[in-house]
Backbone:
């Protein structure tokens, strides 16, 4: 599979479609649609240069939506990552993260942050395996992080 490429605004509808299909095995169709609402078009309008798409002859197989903080010159953030279920467990997400880390470091960023839901044990394990630590100071869950009842696990990783 080729190297991840820069995302484009024109990828938006395909990415939303992938979220709804790829998460359809673990959620109801309504829940998968709700999840796709975390990716409004504005992410690709304003952060396509820091977001990645991995595709082959069949289309988009994985993506990473991330950006560099406009308010803090050392921070980068990974907002959403999706990998085709057929490619999971093959290092595809690791490849996207590694590419994002390298590009963020080239842009002068030294920290990458991410969050996930407390029940997403696979995501928590993946981030820990990728060298992320819990923030702040190892606290496993930030209560009401995204509003009442919206608890999150927060991660930070230093990059060179």
Residues:
């Amino acid at each position: 599979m080729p190297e991840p490429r820069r995302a484009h605004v024109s990828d938006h509808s395909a990415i939303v479609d992938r979220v709804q299909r790829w998460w359809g095995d673990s959620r109801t169709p309504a829940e998968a649609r709700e999840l796709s609402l975390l990716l409004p078009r504005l992410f690709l309008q304003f952060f396509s240069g820091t977001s990645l798409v991995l595709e082959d002859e069949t289309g988009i197989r994985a993506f990473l939506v991330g950006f560099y903080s406009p308010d803090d010159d050392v921070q980068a953030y990974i907002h959403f990552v999706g990998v085709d279920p057929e490619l999971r467990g093959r290092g595809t997400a690791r490849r996207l993260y590694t590419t994002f880390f390298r590009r963020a470091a080239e842009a002068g960023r030294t920290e990458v942050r991410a969050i996930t839901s407390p029940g997403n044990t696979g995501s928590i394990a993946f981030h820990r395996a990728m060298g992320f630590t819990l923030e702040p100071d190892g606290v496993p869950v930030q209560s009401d992080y995204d509003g009442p009842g919206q608890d999150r696990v927060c991660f930070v990783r230093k990059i060179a």
Residues 92-106 form the longest helix (15 residues). The first strand starts at residue 5 and ends at 6. Residues 110-160 form one domain.
